[in-house]
């Protein structure tokens, strides 16, 4: 590859540079900081920058969100400390989702087959009642159905079909079982 030939010319972030710079400073001082554990303020700020944030969303300290205007979070979802939403493309997180500490949502990568190392982006979708364990990585194009548990440290790729209510674990993540509860997953 030749990084000198790389260009992000075709990529659009969705907002002008001034908005991105303003978000960077607000995110750094309030959202990513451990000094402002006030969830209501974080929700309010994210909404001002275009995020769709549901009621009762908990956003712990040191959370990084690249572009709030590309984020949707459902009601009563928890986002743990040091989660990084690297959303060059849209990220949708449903209601009642637990995103544990250190989870990384990665919506962008590069085409290793091209000398110019072209940028590739794809959205991520996490359906309701899902639990993503600590330090898991969710890669571009992944769609997680309802009730799934992603084990700690797992890497979820878009290379497989995922059924509702399963437990995924490993690198790459594979189905290791079902989630048994009164919600009707894997009865």
Strand order of the largest sheet: 2-5-8-13-16-18-19
What amount of the residues lies in strands? 25-35%
Termini, distance in Å?
A: 50 Å
Count of helices?
A: 2
> How many strand units?
19
Q: What helical percentage do the residues reach?
A: 10-25%
Q: Could you give the order of the helices and strands? A: HHEEEEEEEEEEEEEEEEEEE
Shape: globular
CATH class: Mainly Beta
Residue windows where pLDDT falls under 50 for at least 5 positions: none
Summing up helix and strand content along with how strands pair, one would put the structural category as: alpha/beta
Number of domains: 1
> What would CATH call the homologous superfamily?
Hexapeptide repeat proteins
Quickly give the CATH architecture. Answer: 3 Solenoid
Q: How many strands, what sense, and barrel or not for the largest sheet?
A: 7 strands, mixed
Rg from C-alpha positions?
17 Å
**CATH fold node name:** UDP N-Acetylglucosamine Acyltransferase, domain 1
| Nearest-integer average pLDDT | 93
Fold and architecture overview:
This protein is of the alpha/beta class and 187 residues long. The protein has a single domain, classed as UDP N-Acetylglucosamine Acyltransferase, domain 1. The protein is built from two helices and 19 strands. The strands form four sheets. A seven-stranded mixed beta sheet has the order 2-5-8-13-16-18-19. The chain has a five-stranded parallel beta sheet with strand order 1-4-7-12-15, with helices on one face. It has a five-stranded parallel beta sheet with strand order 3-6-9-14-17. The longest helix has 15 residues. 33% of the residues are buried. The model has no long low-confidence stretch (mean pLDDT 93).
């Amino acid at each position: 590859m030749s990084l000198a030939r790389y260009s992000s010319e075709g990529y659009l972030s969705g907002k002008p540079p001034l908005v991105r710079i303003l978000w960077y400073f607000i995110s750094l001082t309030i959202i990513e900081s451990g000094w402002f554990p006030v969830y209501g303020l974080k929700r309010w700020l994210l909404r001002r920058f275009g995020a769709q944030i549901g009621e009762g969303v908990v956003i712990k300290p040191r959370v990084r969100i690249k572009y709030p205007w590309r984020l949707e979070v459902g009601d009563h979802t928890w986002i743990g400390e040091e989660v990084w939403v690297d959303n060059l493309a849209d990220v949708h997180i449903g209601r009642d989702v637990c995103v544990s500490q250190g989870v990384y949502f990665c919506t962008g990568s590069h085409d290793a087959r091209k000398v110019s190392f072209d940028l590739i982006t794809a959205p991520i979708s996490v359906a309701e009642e899902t639990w993503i364990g600590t330090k898991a990585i969710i890669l571009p194009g992944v769609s997680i159905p309802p009730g799934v548990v992603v084990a700690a440290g797992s890497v979820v790729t878009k290379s497989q079909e995922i059924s509702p209510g399963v437990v995924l674990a490993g690198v790459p993540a594979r189905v290791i079982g079902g989630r048994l509860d009164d919600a009707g997953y894997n009865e």
